[in-house]
Design a protein that fits this description.
Number of domains: 1
Radius of gyration: 18 Å
Oligomer: single chain
Order of helices and strands: EHHEHHEHEH
Shape: elongated
Helix content: 40-55%
Number of helices: 6
Length: 142
Amino acid sequence: MKIITIDFETFYSKEFSLSKLTTEEYIRSPFFEVIGSADLDWQPLLQQILMDLSQGKPLAEIALFFHQSLISTIVLMAQQLGHSHIFLSGGCFQNVQLLHNTIVQLRQNQFIPHCPQQIPPNDGGIAFGQAIGAALNLAHSS
């Protein structure tokens, strides 16, 4: 799985919201700067989980192993990027345990983690941002 990390200027543009651009076309716009990418092979992790399931390991242990693997990957990617501020967003960070432990590990590795505080990190946050953008666009056009 290819992960692309993007540093972008927050904006709302009618031409982007109305177009049918692919993700690759979207991030190649001049508003975005790709600051890093990584090819991640999840097969060993998934094989371990399947083996643990077949051996009857408790689901809580398997879930903890999965979370720790994700957190280790996040910290490793942060180290490779070399930026001190790390922004966490996406639906997986609605999981309080995953979010908390990721923040702890990032801080222990001298990173400054950031995450949404007043809006959800998933599609609800995207919808909120789109609504703000639309309102700003309307305010500027009148």
